[in-house]
Amino acid sequence: MTKGKVDALLGIVFGDEGKGKVVDFFTPHYDVVARFAGGPNAGHTIIFDGRKFVLRSIPSGIFDAGKLNIIGNGCVLAPDLFMAEARELEAAGYTLTDRLHISRRAHLILPTHRVLDRAYEAAKGKNKVGTTGKGIGPTYSDKAARTGLRVGDILGNFNEKYAALKARHEQILRDLHFTDYDITEEEARWMEGVDYLRKFHLTDTEHEINRYLAEGKNVLAEGAQGSLLDIDHGTYPFVSSSSTTSGGVCTGLGVAPGSIGRVWGVFKAYSTRVGAGPFPVELFDETGDTIRRIGNEFGAVTGRNRRCGWIDLVALRYAIMVNGVTDLVMMKSDVLDGFETIKVCTAYRKDGVTLTDMPYDTEGCEPVYEELPGWQTPLGALRREEDFPPAFKAYIDYLERALATPIRIISVGPDREATIVRNL
Ligand code: GDP
Ligand code: IMO
Ligand code: MG
Questions:
Q1: Is 16 tagged catalytic?
Q2: Catalytic pick from 16, 24, 31, 80?
């Protein structure tokens, strides 16, 4: 909400914190909403007026007719999936071409990137990352290797460049003995998607955003994935391939560090993780199943079970530090309504040592818990902080103290309306 600034809204754990819902809720307070990282590995759910949308590449500000949405240079885009997503919104009555600008510097996900994603996962055997299969890793690898194709390339001599990169991928696939695939139909749809993409404003969005900032307008940078999936700060190698933390906003939109205003850190009242990798607070018991069932913790992109556990303050403190989170947003508080007691992981134990700072490797870390009383009252219908049950207030106060950061927004249900603003 800071004028002339970019506020960042980031998932600060393992993704799926509810970023889409909060971005949609905040959009009336911003002039522009921009995605700066990731691609269709994201699944951001927005529910209002009895309708539900899951957005993958399109920013969650798209439901507010007056607002400009931007897919920034740090993103990767699959033209076929983008076309399907955009057409769904068009069918629901939202016009996009004037309100959605796409950076010419964003990288393209080719059908062969998706095959490579599968091939690399297959080659990893037991050490699979559990990717979404959307070609994210191979696309960012080509970007870093300076062999990628960008959105701007579709405006020039594209077919030749496409054929060259595809041939390169096919060679790698042969080397990996991964030849049992057929992308004929997928490729036809992808090419249709490229034509569809040409209808949009494919611009130099970094100039556009900086012009808006100079005019005193404000921008909300919508994060994707979560801080612990960041290529540098996450649980490497079980991470995604982009910079999902606040530094990624600068590189992913072309804005200076001094342009960043508030950093909103979104987290759930408990923890989840999709895909493989260490997750010290994971519950394998009935409690974990209960959280999964009540929280409906099944992936928005792949439908996979999300792994569930209690809240992890070691991870949250780390994420608050590396992002410079100024304000917290707590989601899905209602999911914990029925528990008699609620556990909070305050530290890890590894090799007989207690760790309160996030270690290099969390594999083998055991959680150290404190137990707090549950509120055992349904929160879903509450809209005012004054009506919160005392044990829920105590949970909020405890987290604010432990994280040394104010919790400004509390979500008590999936609908846009089930959102309580405090001390903003
Ligand atoms: P994102 O990727 O961070 O945007 O989050 P997802 O959309 O993948 O996952 C969040 C899920 O929780 C979605 O199904 C939302 O509809 C739902 N959700 C969001 N906020 C709340 C909440 O406060 N309570 C409940 N019960 N569900 C919520
Ligand atoms: P949103 O934006 C949760 C996870 C995958 C896998 C790892 C790498 O909806 O929060 P990738 O396909 O990116 O190479 O997969 O990252 N992952 C996510 N988990 N939410 C997401 O996005 C995710 N995007 C990727 O499950 O473990
Ligand atoms: Mg999601």
A1: yes
A2: 16
